[in-house]
Amino acid sequence: MRASPTAHSRAVDTTRPDWLAVLAVALGIFSLMTSELLPVGLLTPIGSDLGVSEGTAGLMVTIPGLLAAISAPVITVVAARMDRRILLASLTGLMAAANLVGAVAPNFTVVLVARLAIGVSVGGFWAIAGGLAVRLVPSRQVARATAVVFGGVSTASVVGVPAGTLLGDLGGWRTAFATVGVLGLIAMVLLLVLVPSLPSRHAVTFGALPALMRGNKGVRTGVLVTALLITGHFAAYTFVRPVLQEAAGIDSGLIGALLMAYGVAGVTGNFVAGSRVSRHVRGTLLIIAIALAAIMALFALPGHGPVTGTILMIAWGLAYGAVSVSLQTWMLQAAPDAGDTASSLFVATFNLSIALGALIGGLAVDGIATTAVLWVAGVLALLTALTVGAAKKLR
Which of 15, 156, 278, 285 gives 33 a disulfide partner, CB atoms 3.0 to 4.6 angstroms apart? Predict the structure, then answer.
């Protein structure tokens, strides 16, 4: 007697696309990345409420970034034989609980402890989710499904963070934290209901990570490009609120709405890149890096008003929205037979770069000036363009 195909027992049939499962994974990664980056738009009110400087409040981005960088390879190896559906749901539940704790935290120390758990969740989830599209849809649709899944990453930066900022402006930062916690609980349930059982196929070892770096020049280039571009972006983006107020004279009450416009532009950038990146990954990354370098340089120049600042912010969202899917595609094309290992390296580098960017930005804001973070981001984006330009085209 054959068992009925439920979300808990059905076998994966990649001859038919399982878009509900793909969307559930995308929602999971969206909720986790929104959680990781949520403090970006709330640094000023959180710092004011808990009695810390904006530079110190930036540790709320640095801490989970560091933990995510560590947990990506560790969870990939330690939980190598665990069903992917159960693992993703468990990590999402951990993130939801951490946000709810943060929402009622009495002081900044408790907030940072909760952020540790968020870092573990983000690193583990992203490293595993990166290679799941190939198991949920036919091979001809893998590129599209990967764009949808990693649309959750870019959408978190360009929609989740602005929405959280707007919610924080209206109801307070604790309300924003609690809302993301509830979103995480919803994502956890949908992962359990909609995603089929996904037993592990390959056991990844710790030795495979450095071996892939040593033996694959394309992967080494991808790691370097990721480190440069993401460090620069988050050096500036972590402090986007004070940048907009000081560099463009934008009123604090309008920042949430402006970040939403940035978000709409970013979603557009993600799907525009997703439609061409599998065929032109090197050219796409080169365009992104040059565009970001130019935007940062223009933003850093004095004399801007709100109109110019708004135009540059929307251009920034359009360019950055294409980053995640482009970098992930580079790594998977560089190591098509080692997707889990390449994804683990990519996620570790990406999140370590978030932490490093936030740390560098905090030092620049506290030690030099708020607009110094724009010059840091511009220089690193230019170095990214030079690195991509010098790299050989992936086969």
Answer: 156
